[in-house]
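Incident log, support desk, overnight shift.

02:14 A customer reports that sequence design results differ from what the structure should imply. Their input is reproduced verbatim below. On-call engineer (initials T.W.) acknowledged and began investigating.
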């Protein structure tokens, strides 16, 4: 499969310092009851005007996560941060190309 096409409002996260900050927040928000727990999420992209990030999962697949930015596990840990998991790059690309996250 070809590389992910990052079209506005999405962009690739290239700077390690930016990635590290986003991954710290993701780690603070995701606990044992969350669907991403233990899946080895690595942030690869983000929305330019919202708190949505794109993650690749260690075992395959991707997710779009809406960070809440409160630095801890939410009181509804299964639901937040809101997450949609995609089985493969084609599913992710379709989501990125849709108006769903505009």
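02:41 Re-run completed on a clean worker. Output:
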């Amino acid at each position: 499969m070809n590389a992910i096409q990052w079209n506005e409002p999405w962009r690739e996260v290239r700077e390690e310092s930016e990635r590290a900050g986003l991954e710290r927040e993701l780690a603070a928000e995701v606990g044992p009851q969350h669907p991403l727990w233990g899946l080895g999420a690595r942030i690869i992209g983000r929305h330019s005007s919202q708190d949505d990030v794109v993650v690749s999962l260690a075992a395959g697949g991707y997710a779009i996560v809406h960070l809440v930015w409160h630095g801890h596990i939410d009181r509804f840990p299964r639901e937040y941060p809101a997450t949609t998991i995609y089985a493969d790059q084609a599913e992710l690309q379709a989501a990125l190309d849709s108006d769903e996250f505009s």
